[in-house]
C-alpha cells in the first residue's frame, strides 16, 4: 500500500487498496463526522473539508433548494451519501447530490442500490485546491447526468455525453439556470449580512427564470 500526503489540504491518497478495505473504512467511520471517501479501482482518497469548502457546499445546496422551492419541484437532497458500485470497483461520497428528474424513482433511500436504481441527477463537487483524484471519471462511470464543480476559477457545469463530460453554459436538470446565474447567487451570498433574505431573493429570481 502506497501513501501520498497532500500538504496543501487535509487530504490523504492511498494506493493498492481493495474494495473490501474500502468497505471497512466506511464501516469503521459509520455515520459519524469524518473524512470524505472516494474509491477508484484501487485508489482511495480521504478528505477533511475546510471551512471554506463547507461554506461553498452549503451555499450551492441552498441554491438548489431555493430553485426547487420556487418551481415547486419534487426532489430528494441526499447530501454526501455514499454512492458505491462494487461491480464497477468504484464509489464516492459527493459534496452534495440531488435526485430531481428521478426523485420519484427512488424505492428506498435508506438502502440505495445503484446497481438497480438510477444515480443522482446532479452532483456538486468543491475543488478549491488542486484535486489529487480526478472524480469526473467516477461520476461518468456511475452515470451522473450533471456535475457542478466549483474551483478557484469559479463554477464549472458539466453534462454527461456518452462516457465523458462536456462543459455546458446552463443547467439541463434545472432548465433556465445558467452558470452565470449560479455564480451570481454565490457572490450575492458572500456579500449579504442576512442569509434568509438572500435565500428569498434566490427564490424570487428562480421564479422569474422559469417563466
From TrEMBL:
Pfam families according to UniProt: Uma2 (PF05685)
Residue ranges occupied by any Putative restriction endonuclease domain in the UniProt entry? 19-170
Q: Which SUPFAM superfamilies match?
A: Restriction endonuclease-like (SSF52980)
The record ties this protein, via InterPro entries, to: Nuclease_put_TT1808 (IPR012296), Restrct_endonuc-II-like (IPR011335), Uma2 (IPR008538)
Q: What is this protein called?
A: Putative restriction endonuclease domain-containing protein
Species the sequence originates in: Candidatus Entotheonella gemina
